[in-house]
Amino acid sequence: MSVIILLRRGGQAPGSSVEHALAIDAELRANGAALLEENRPETQGRANSKELPKRRESPRGEWDESRLNCDVRHTQYVAPRDAVSGETIVWSLAALVGAYLLYAVTDTVGHYILERSGESVLLSVRSRLAGHLLRLRIPTLESLRVGDLISRVTLDSTVVRNAVGSSLVQILTGAITLVGTIAVMIYIDWLLFSIVILTVAVAASAMLLVMTRIEKASTQLQESVGALSADIERALTGVRTVKVNNAEEREHEHLTELAGAAFAAGMRAARLKALGNPAMHLAVTGSFVVSLLVGGVRVANHQMELSGLVSMMLLAMNLLIPVSDLFNGSVGLQQALGALSRIESTLELPSEDNDDIRQNVIEPAANSPRTTFHNSPENGYLALEFRNVHFSYDERKILNGVTFSVPPRGHVALVGHSGAGKSTVFSLVSRFYNPNDGDILLAGRSYIDRPRRAWRSEISLLEQNAPLLFGSLRDNLTYRQPGLAEDDLQRAIELAGAGRACRRAASRPRHPSRGARCSPLGR
């Protein structure tokens, strides 16, 4: 809508103020069409230096024509407000909705990729650890605590996953933001930037000292949790012994002490982290104050623009965000390094596969024929033979030149007092250990040139206290051969005289909490 400023010249207009207003209104109505035409964009250029056409004679007074002279250069044609405003609002809302949807999709996809990466790392670490633990040498396993090994698979791997899922991202985003902020600060004023970076560097050195101690405290925390897990596993495994000896209170006190040790280690890590936060804030605040003082002096001496000082102050305060991300991410990374050191030490433990590789033993293919002893009398091979075998646990001698043989068919009994070496013989036959000297032959072939898996595929071992693995009796009976046919399984049950026991077990209700379900052949 055009606005016309009427400048009154000359003497007083006749009549009252109401008459003056009516006269002006009549003049505007009479000249409205001409004014709009002059103010349109296509004709505005031609009207910039022209005056409005003279109005018609006013019936209400004698007015000087110069009173209504208006410079049309101060007028502008404006399109209808309703149409323009409505169209602008629609496009603005559409842009906002589109930006929000783009943010929502990007944020969702980013979080999913991040979580998937963390879970993939967790799966890889746990799978590798579980496979390595199952392949450890028996002497190595006997020297370690099972609960501690379990905590490395479960708890330590979770700490590493959290580092990948959050700590590394915090470090990356903080570093990018910090680099961008530093670049802008250098561009604005390198002198103030030098003061800021010097202050931050002093605090960062203190934070690095805290970081190294956080890693040590985190390692102690993981070890304390591992010891607690190991003792809980020991107490629950021998819970019958604990109860029959009325040792519940003693075990409870011992486990409480271990939990207290884990708590103390956790508090040490928490105190160190708490010390890092004020150092970080002090660095940023100190740099801000020093920059303000130095920058104020430079502005007063006309060595720096005030706008530049304001920008530097805002950037100095903005340093708190990336520095906080770097600190928190570094704390999580140090905790992960403590857990990772325990995982790496586990993976470095010697396994049976490494022993076979050192002996240059190549494992036969899965479909290779198994050794049979039906023709042993003809070829002269014995089922099993010990030749001058020597073995000791550390410095304690157990077997000293033991020699005996087992025929392909028949029964051989090993009789001796406790500690004579009966169980050691079975451990050597099962290749849990290797003899210090001498040789062991299976079907005429020495153990030296045979991998453990091929050797064990030719023997069967029934332990004195045979454990029941969690699952059905079918799972336990077919543990050696999971694909055993139904008829072969039934025949084995009857030959073992276990048919009645299996039928009786089938009639009992299931107890999922027990090691093996009562259903004899249920899957």
Number of strands: 4
Overall form: elongated
The percentage of residues in β strands lies in 5-15%
Rg measurement, Å: 45 Å
Taken in chain order, the helices and strands follow as HHHHHHHHHHHHEEHEEHHHH
Number of helices: 17
Family: Belongs to the ABC transporter superfamily. Siderophore-Fe(3+) uptake transporter (SIUT) (TC 3.A.1.21) family.
Main location: membrane
Subcellular location: Cell inner membrane
Membrane topology: Multi-pass membrane protein
Explain how this protein is built.
This protein is mainly α. Helix content is 63%, strand content 6%. The chain contains 17 helices and 4 strands. It has a 4-stranded antiparallel sheet, with helices on one face. Strand 1 and strand 2 form a beta hairpin. Helix 5 packs antiparallel against helix 9 and helix 6 packs antiparallel against helix 8. It is elongated. It starts with 16 loop residues before the first helix and ends in a 17-residue tail after the last helix. The N terminus and C terminus are likely disordered.
